[in-house]
Specification:
The protein is built from eight helices and nine strands. It has about 230 residues and is of the alpha/beta class.
Length: about 230
């Protein structure tokens, strides 16, 4: 059995939520499950999370409070995805890695959100992959891969078809680690590096990309251990 962890970015969690889109993605995971994949899905906070965090900052809340709000919203998004999956999903959203391990033993798809302040859901996905000794970790975002610079700001940015964890950490350290942002997270990179999991960073808006990466195909940016 192939164990697969998929981090679902904010593209799938607009506000208000779009049930049809959630059902469409649920069908992909239903197919993978039927083919024998062990699945854990990690929901990001999406648009609602960013709205709450922005409001909290205007009220002068500290970053821990902002992180806690983001975690709460990501768990609501996880609940949405679990409902879209119906009986295939484990009925509870894990709040710790211990619960994740326990729920995963039941053969259902486990859907989770954030865990700890200071950890992005990309890092949570990496921790989940490590905890379950996953074969593949997919970070499904609204960008088609990892670039040398921010492709939204620099039209000359170069896309990497493959990148080492060392180079990726260098890029991640250029970003800002604020609650609610989706930067390349150094913590996620370090966990990917130490776990040795095969990881992909890809455009999840194209559903076929998730299926292709789950089969080990060439898509997005493949992340490999190394300096």
């Amino acid at each position: 059995m192939v164990n697969l962890v998929v981090k679902l970015g904010h593209f799938l969690f607009p506000y208000p939520p779009k049930p049809r889109a959630l059902r469409d993605y649920a069908r992909i995971f239903e197919t993978l499950h039927s083919e024998g994949y062990g699945l854990v899905l990690v929901a990001g906070g999406g648009a609602a999370s960013r709205g709450y965090i922005e409001a909290l900052r205007r009220l002068h809340a500290d970053e821990t409070v902002c992180d806690e709000a983001g975690i709460s919203v990501s768990r609501l998004n996880a609940r949405l995805m679990a409902v879209a999956l119906g009986e295939l999903a484990y009925p509870a959203v894990p709040r710790s890695l211990e619960e994740l391990r326990a729920y995963s033993r039941h053969g259902r798809i486990v859907v989770m959100g954030g865990l700890t302040p200071g950890h992005s859901t990309a890092a949570v996905g990496a921790l989940a992959a490590e905890a379950l000794n996953a074969d593949i970790y997919i970070m499904a975002t609204d960008v088609d891969g990892i670039y040398s610079e921010d492709p939204k700001a620099d039209p000359k940015a170069r896309k990497f078809e493959e990148v080492t964890t060392g180079k990726l950490l260098e890029l991640a350290l250029k970003g800002k680690l604020w609650a609610g942002t989706y930067q390349l997270d150094p913590l996620a990179v370090k966990i990917i590096e130490r776990s040795g999991v095969t990881a992909y960073f890809l455009d999840g808006r194209r559903k076929e990309n998730i299926m292709r990466a789950s089969l080990g195909g060439k898509v997005g940016t493949k992340i490999v251990p190394g300096s």
